[in-house]
Design goal:
nine-stranded mixed beta sheet; 643 residues
């Protein structure tokens, strides 16, 4: 019998032991192939080629996906190989040389890799059509993609996974050549270190985490807040460092200290199987602290990323409306061209015009340019609009949204920059008009009526009538029914207008935002899925490694009278804590970060954050029950059926 035949026989007769590693390879290949095949789909390619930034996002994400998948497979292989150390030792005792054992393991890895590639690519091909439809729907492009089998995607996937298979095979060779026969047989009997708790570091961990939360939740625009005194970049670095260091210390010092306190409470510690659960858990947390801290931080970052992109996606319509208060807006440079554009809008039947407004803007300087606010442009002055003109325009864009009467010495500043608005409030200056009118900014607003003017001063009609006429500009604002569907009309109007008309289109801005955020959300979901599978599997494999190490311990428990139900309860308690720690910490970190970002960007992200957090929680629950069942079967043996 050749080594290749022996490898095939091992896989055939022990497939149940190979299944976890084989399944992880299939999942990784399926996800990667599906993602790569998306970028080869003709319908997606046509859209990505028209936008270099979207194509760059896909390319960068494929590299990130390779890294996640490689880590996932390498970790699975590491568990699989460690689990077989005793088997490798038996082969050595039977007379096989290290080189021959390495060849046999390579053949096994190669056969499983080929099988996983065939199954993974097959499943990925079936799923790719579904994911293309999801991507196109997220980008609001519509349409159904035809079934496409991409040979380029197959070659790409095969090459990547051949490289990963070679790396995993080299890892197996390394274990064989660097491990002695004695270590192969006693690799599972290494004692865990007794955890040490430090009260000072335990308290410091809470201070660092809560301190990071406190800074993150401070108001961002007030001068007296911490954010006002720190630069934004420095503040972000301070928060992340504080929370990450606090998380590591929490798991290394606070939790062991907390569990030790529980051990001193005899009523809790000696209740049922708590004495076993607590003792096991103390060692588990100590040995897994670094891994759990890393997973907690990465889970928080992943939830923040998906929640943030999901929030941006859900707020696209609002953002497009803020950027483009009118469906179409342009500067009138020629009356004949203006009439052509209006005629196109009036004659359009798919998205009929609901109204339009020509608004005159005056640029007026102040008597003194010194110490003026950012809203003031020295070359032109202030962009000024009369109260009546402003109210007419807002009635067109947003019915029932108008400003009450203004006194001649009062003005309202509308600015997209909250800092500018705050600095200008209650500021007084004298306009260089026919009466040298002195005015004071008595109110500031953020809802601009134009797409191309970012700071606008609203004055009374009396003051507006005294403004000089040499620096005026007329802007046309057009509103249509169902503006999201007015892409065709937008392109027609854009062809008519000259470049200096500064044409702005709500439907084109909406489409661009939907495409960008849709791709980001889709990529985030894909990478989040792989990350979740990787982190869940890391905890899963770690617990199974400990289960094999604990077989002798649970044999003793069985001998002293504990039945399967009691042992399963003990296992469920300690595994639950191991899964809850990174999940709860990740949710806490992400929740604070999302609240801070939502306040900064002034948008609602509750729905997106809830969906992403809920999905992660459900997947962790599934991993938890799978781990408990597998752990129990390892230490107790599979439950026999009773006929």
């Amino acid at each position: 019998m050749t080594l290749f035949d022996l490898a095939k026989k091992n896989i055939k007769h022990n497939f149940i032991h190979y299944f976890l590693y084989f399944a992880s390879m299939i999942f990784s290949i399926m996800i990667y192939y599906t993602f790569v095949s998306l970028s080869k789909d003709p319908k997606v390619v046509a859209r990505l080629d028209n936008d270099s930034s979207l194509a760059s996002m896909f390319n960068a994400s494929s590299i990130l996906l390779i890294i996640f998948v490689a880590i996932f497979i390498l970790y699975s292989n590491h568990f699989f190989t460690r689990k077989r150390k005793k088997e490798i030792g038996i082969y050595s005792l039977l007379g096989l040389r290290k080189k021959e054992i390495g060849q046999m393991l390579f053949y096994e890895n190669f056969l499983m890799g080929v099988g996983a590639l065939v199954i993974g690519i097959g499943l990925g091909t079936l799923l790719s059509k579904v994911f293309v439809a999801i991507l196109l729907n997220m980008m609001k492009l519509g349409g159904i993609s035809n079934f496409v089998f991409s040979m380029d995607a197959v070659i790409n996937t095969v090459v990547i996974f051949i490289i990963i298979t070679l790396i995993t095979s080299l890892t197996g060779y390394r274990i064989i050549y660097r491990t002695t026969l004695l270590d192969l047989f006693h690799s599972e009997s290494k004692r865990e270190k007794t955890p040490k708790s430090n009260p000072f570091l335990a308290i410091l961990s809470l201070v660092l985490i809560l301190g990071g939360y406190f800074i993150a939740l401070q108001p961002l625009i007030t001068k007296d807040s911490i954010w006002g005194k720190l630069e934004f970049g420095l503040g972000m670095i301070l928060i992340m460092t504080s929370v990450i260091v606090g998380t590591v210390l929490l798991l290394n010092s606070f939790l062991p200290l907390f569990l030790n306190k529980i051990r001193k409470n005899k009523r809790i510690f000696y209740n049922g199987t708590n004495i076993i659960s607590n003792s096991q858990l103390t060692f588990r947390i100590a040995s897994n602290a670094r891994t759990l801290a890393t997973i907690a931080v990465l889970t928080g970052m992943t939830l923040v990323s998906i929640g943030m992109v999901g929030g941006l996606y859900n707020n696209v319509s609002k953002d497009a409306g803020l950027n483009n208060p009118a469906t179409f807006e342009y500067r009138i440079t020629d009356e004949a061209i203006n009439q052509k554009a209006l005629t196109l809008a009036q004659n359009n039947t798919k998205t009929p015009m609901t109204g339009h407004q020509e608004t005159t803007i005056d640029y007026v300087k102040a008597i003194s340019d010194r110490e003026m606010s950012f809203a003031y442009v020295p070359e032109k002055g202030f962009a000024v609009i009369s109260l009546t003109a402003y109210n007419k325009l807002r009635t067109l864009e947003k019915p029932n949204d108008s400003i009450p009467a203004l006194k001649d010495n009062e003005a309202i500043l509308i600015s997209a920059d909250s800092t500018t608005a705050s600095d200008t409030l209650n500021q007084s200056f004298t306009l260089k008009n026919s009466t040298n009118q002195k005015i004071t900014v008595t109110k500031t607003m953020a809802d601009l009526p134009f797409s191309t003017i970012y700071n606008l001063l609203v004055v009374s009609d009396n003051v507006a009538n005294t403004l000089p006429s040499k620096n005026k500009m007329t802007i046309q604002s057009i509103m249509v029914d169902q503006p999201k569907d007015a892409i065709a009309l937008s392109k027609q109007i854009a062809k008519v207008l000259p470049e200096n008309a500064a044409f702005r289109s709500y439907p084109e801005n909406y489409e661009a935002l939907m495409k960008g955020t849709g791709v980001l959300l889709f990529i985030g979901m894909f990478i989040g899925l792989v990350f979740l599978a990787a982190t869940g599997s890391i905890i899963y494999f770690k617990q199974l490694t400990e289960a094999y190490n604990d077989i002798a311990t649970y044999d003793i428990l069985k001998k002293i009278g504990l039945d399967r139900k009691e042992i399963r309860k003990t296992i469920a308690k300690q595994v639950l804590v191991i899964f809850l720690i990174p999940l709860i910490l990740g949710i806490m970190h992400s929740s604070v970060a999302l609240v801070a970002l939502a306040n900064l960007l002034q948008m609602n992200i509750i729905l997106a954050a809830s969906i992403s957090t809920g999905a992660f929680t459900l997947m962790f629950i599934a991993y938890y029950f799978l781990t408990v069942n597998t752990y129990t079967n390892i230490v107790m043996g599979k439950k026999k059926r009773v006929d």
